[in-house]
C-alpha cells in the first residue's frame, strides 16, 4: 500500500487546476499554444534556479548543433570544468513531450543527478516539434553524443539518462548509436519512458485519469514529433526496434501511468533479446515520480535505487 504522503502529493498534483481557479483538468488540443507552454516551463524553473553551492555549470560549444541550441557541463564543485577532463559522465536527454524543454528548465533536475552521484553531466538542447519534427531531435542527440566521445571519455564510463519523452529518446538513442556503429555507453536509465508514439498500449486509456500527465498530450505532441514519418520507426518508438546488443538498462515506472505499457512491453522485448534489463514497477505511482523525491517515501526509494544503479555502472 502506498504511503499517506504519496497520496497527498499526487492528489495535489492531479488537482493542480483547482489551485489555478479552474474546475477541470487541462487538456492539450491542437489549439494549445506550444510557445506559451515553453514560456511557462521556463518561468516555473526560474523559481528554483539557485544552483547548490557544490554544483557548478559551465556552458560548452558543440559544433554541429544548430544555432540557438545550448549545451552545458554540470559538475561537482572541485571537479573538472569540462567533459574532456573527466573520466566518466552522465549524458542527459531531457523530457518535455518533444515540444518543450531545454537546458534552462532542466538544469536543476540534472544538477540533482550530479549531486547524488558525484558524476558530471552533459545537458544539451535539441530541436523541438512542431517546428522541427523527427529526425531533428535524434540528429542533435547523436551530434552531442559524438562530441562527448571526442572529449576522451570512454564509452564504458558514460550512462545515458532521460525522463518521459527524454526517457524514450534515451532508449531510441541506444538503438541509433548501435545502428550508426558508434561505441555504446555503459548503460541507459529511463524514467517513465515514452517508447510507443503510436500510443497502442491499454494504459493510455485505463490510466489517463489516474496519472498526472496532461490529458491529450500524447496524441497532440506525439503527432507533432512524428510528423510525416511512421510512428513505429524504431528511432521514434524504440518499442518497435530490434533490441539485440543494447547495454544494460534500468526503467522506473508507476503502475498508474499512461506510459506503463510502454515500459512493460519494452522491457519484455528487451529481455527476450538478451538485454540486461531491470524494470521497476511501483504500486500507485505516477509519471516520473522519482523526481518528486524527497517529498514521499516511494519517490525517495526509487530515486536512491536509480542513483545507486548509475554509480554501479560507472565504477
Automatic annotation (TrEMBL):
It comes from the Bacteria. Keywords: Hydrolase. SUPFAM superfamilies: alpha/beta-Hydrolases. One of its GO terms (molecular function) is triacylglycerol lipase activity. Residues 90-290 form the Alpha/beta hydrolase fold-3 domain. The keyword Metal-binding does not apply. The keyword Hydrolase applies. InterPro entries: AB_hydrolase_3, AB_hydrolase_fold, GDXG_lipolytic_enzyme. Belongs to the 'GDXG' lipolytic enzyme family. This is Esterase/lipase. It comes from Longilinea arvoryzae.
Amino acid at each position: 500500500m502506498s504511503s499517506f504522503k504519496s497520496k497527498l502529493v499526487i492528489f495535489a498534483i492531479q488537482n493542480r487546476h483547482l489551485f489555478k481557479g479552474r474546475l477541470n483538468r487541462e487538456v492539450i488540443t491542437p489549439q494549445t499554444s506550444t510557445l506559451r507552454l515553453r514560456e511557462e516551463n521556463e518561468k516555473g524553473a526560474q523559481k528554483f534556479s539557485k544552483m547548490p553551492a557544490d554544483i557548478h555549470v559551465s556552458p560548452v560549444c558543440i559544433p554541429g548543433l544548430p544555432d540557438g541550441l545550448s549545451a552545458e557541463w554540470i559538475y561537482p564543485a572541485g571537479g573538472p570544468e569540462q567533459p574532456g577532463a573527466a573520466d566518466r559522465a552522465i549524458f542527459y536527454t531531457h523530457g518535455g513531450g518533444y515540444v518543450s524543454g531545454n537546458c534552462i528548465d532542466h538544469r536543476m533536475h540534472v544538477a540533482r543527478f550530479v549531486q547524488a552521484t558525484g558524476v558530471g553531466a552533459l545537458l544539451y538542447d535539441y530541436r523541438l516539434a512542431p517546428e522541427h519534427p523527427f529526425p531533428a531531435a535524434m540528429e542533435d542527440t547523436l551530434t552531442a553524443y559524438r562530441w562527448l566521445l571526442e572529449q576522451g571519455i570512454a564509452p564504458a564510463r558514460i550512462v545515458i539518462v532521460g525522463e518521459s519523452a527524454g526517457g524514450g529518446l534515451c532508449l531510441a538513442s541506444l538503438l541509433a548509436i548501435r545502428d550508426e556503429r558508434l561505441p555504446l555507453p555503459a548503460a541507459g536509465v529511463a524514467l517513465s519512458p515514452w517508447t510507443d508514439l503510436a500510443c497502442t498500449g491499454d494504459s493510455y486509456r485505463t490510466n489517463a485519469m489516474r496519472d498526472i500527465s496532461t490529458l491529450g498530450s500524447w496524441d497532440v505532441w506525439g503527432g507533432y514529433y512524428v510528423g510525416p514519418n511512421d510512428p513505429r520507426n524504431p528511432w521514434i518508438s524504440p518499442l518497435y526496434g530490434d533490441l539485440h546488443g543494447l547495454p544494460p538498462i534500468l526503467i522506473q515506472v508507476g503502475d498508474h501511468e499512461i506510459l506503463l505499457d510502454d515500459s512493460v512491453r519494452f522491457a519484455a522485448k528487451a529481455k527476450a533479446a538478451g538485454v540486461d534489463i531491470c524494470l521497476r514497477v511501483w504500486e500507485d505511482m505516477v509519471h516520473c515520480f522519482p523526481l518528486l523525491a524527497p517529498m514521499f517515501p516511494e519517490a525517495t526509494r526509487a530515486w536512491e535505487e536509480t542513483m545507486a544503479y548509475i554509480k554501479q555502472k560507472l565504477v
